[in-house]
């Protein structure tokens, strides 16, 4: 069932929701949270479709906020609220309210959304694109216990990651981080095996300007405290991770975006299902937990600049001259007689 309301108010929308539930014979509310989606007309359809698919696992009231400030001075001055209500089969496993805010009302979206939140239920705010730098400081973001962005949709994903690390607040998360959950699980399981020795360095390979690759590299650098190099491949997405140990390399390679191969020293290769997930699956995963993600916070605050600096410093450490070595190894080297330099080979005659 769909109901269109033009030049309406929040109280009329609530009344229409109650009447719509009665008309379809489901007066009880069985929803577990309110999902607020802040987007524009161009991305509203795809975002709403993903939210409806995720609602089969998390029945929720979905409130879509579409801001339409207007192009002319007069249209920007006139405030109007239009709404579209969807219940039943048209709204997944919950109910949906699409709000179109016109004119000056765009700057007061929180006053329109607040009366539509489910009482005594968590609130999650999701920006599919165009998220503000400070999520918790945004008027709509302040309504939510969890705030979800997608850095992959940004024009400058790496720059946005750096900005987000400075404005992080508990409850913030990113679908670029959610995309690497299977990778983190597989790598952690591989390192838990007793046959793997200490990791000395790592390499993360994936598409250029892919924030998931950067986040995975920062997670490895933060957790393992080793230099991590970021290399570029043709994709799709994240393609491989190599962990260097004294016994050999632990490699998780996914060239086709679906099936990966795990290689470990002294063990046969294994095939691993590591397909790229759609937005609905990523959103459903984030809605399973409403507490702050401390691991994401630590990885994000490690910083892209620090990651690049540690990777650049790694080759210098590997090629240190004997004069710069300190500690027990330096003392042992000083006790040994100096090796005689090898004789230089004779120069070959020029062919010209």
Characterization of this structure:
Helices cover 34% and strands 24% of the residues. It is built from twelve helices and 14 strands. The chain has an eight-stranded mixed β-sheet with strand order 1-4-5-3-2-6-7-8, sandwiched between helices. It has a six-stranded mixed β-sheet with strand order 10-9-11-12-13-14. α2 (41-54) crosses α9 and α8 crosses α10.
SSE layout:
Layout: E1 2-5, H1 10-23, E2 33-39, H2 41-54, E3 60-68, H3 73-77, E4 80-87, E5 95-102, H4 109-113, E6 123-126, E7 146-149, H5 157-166, E8 172-174, H6 175-178, H7 181-192, E9 199-206, H8 211-224, E10 228-232, E11 238-245, E12 248-253, E13 259-263, E14 270-273, H9 279-287, H10 294-302, H11 304-318, H12 328-335
Parallel strand pairs: 2-3, 2-6, 3-5, 6-7, 7-8, 9-10
Antiparallel strand pairs: 1-4, 4-5, 9-11, 11-12, 12-13, 13-14
Low-confidence segments, ≥5 residues, pLDDT <50? 316-352
Sketch the topology as an H/E string, one letter per element. Answer: EHEHEHEEHEEHEHHEHEEEEEHHHH
Could you say which overall geometry the principal axes of the C-alpha atoms support? Answer: elongated
Total helical segments: 12
What does this entry show, briefly?
With 352 residues, this protein is of the alpha/beta class. It has helices at residues 10-23, 41-54, 73-77, 109-113, 157-166, 175-178, 181-192, 211-224, 279-287, 294-302, 304-318, 328-335, and strands spanning 2-5, 33-39, 60-68, 80-87, 95-102, 123-126, 146-149, 172-174, 199-206, 228-232, 238-245, 248-253, 259-263, 270-273.
């Amino acid at each position: 069932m769909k109901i269109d309301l033009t030049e309406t108010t929040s109280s009329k929308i609530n009344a229409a929701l109650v009447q719509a539930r009665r008309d379809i014979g489901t007066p009880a509310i069985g929803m577990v949270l309110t999902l607020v989606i802040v987007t524009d007309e161009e991305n509203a359809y795809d975002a709403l479709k993903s939210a409806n698919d995720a609602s089969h696992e998390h029945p929720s009231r979905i409130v879509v906020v579409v801001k339409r400030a207007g192009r002319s001075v007069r249209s920007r001055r006139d405030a109007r609220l239009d709404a579209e209500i969807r219940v039943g089969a048209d709204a997944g496993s919950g109910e949906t309210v699409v709000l179109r805010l016109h004119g000056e009302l765009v700057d007061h979206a929180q006053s329109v959304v607040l009366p539509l939140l489910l009482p005594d239920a968590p609130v999650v705010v999701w920006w599919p694109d165009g998220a503000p730098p400070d999520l918790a400081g945004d008027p709509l973001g302040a309504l939510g216990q969890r705030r979800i962005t997608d850095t992959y949709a940004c024009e400058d994903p790496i720059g946005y990651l750096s900005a987000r690390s400075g404005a992080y607040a508990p409850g913030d998360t990113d679908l670029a981080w959610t995309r690497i959950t299977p990778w983190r699980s597989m790598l952690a399981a591989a390192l838990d095996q007793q046959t793997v020795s200490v990791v000395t360095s790592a390499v993360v390979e994936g598409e250029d300007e892919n924030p998931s690759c950067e986040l995975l590299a920062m997670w490895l650098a933060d957790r393992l405290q080793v230099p991590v190099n970021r290399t570029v491949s043709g994709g799709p997405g994240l393609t491989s991770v190599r962990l260097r140990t004294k016994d050999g390399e632990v490699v998780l390679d996914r060239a086709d975006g679906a099936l990966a191969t795990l290689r470990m020293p002294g063990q046969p290769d294994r095939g691993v299902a590591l397909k790229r997930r759609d937005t609905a699956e990523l959103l459903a995963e984030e809605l399973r937990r409403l507490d702050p993600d401390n691991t994401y916070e630590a990885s994000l605050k490690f910083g892209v600049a620090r990651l690049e600096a540690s990777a650049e410093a790694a080759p210098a450490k590997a090629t240190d001259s004997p004069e710069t070595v300190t500690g027990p190894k330096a003392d042992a080297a000083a006790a040994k007689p100096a090796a005689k330099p090898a004789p230089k080979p004779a120069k070959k005659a020029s062919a010209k």
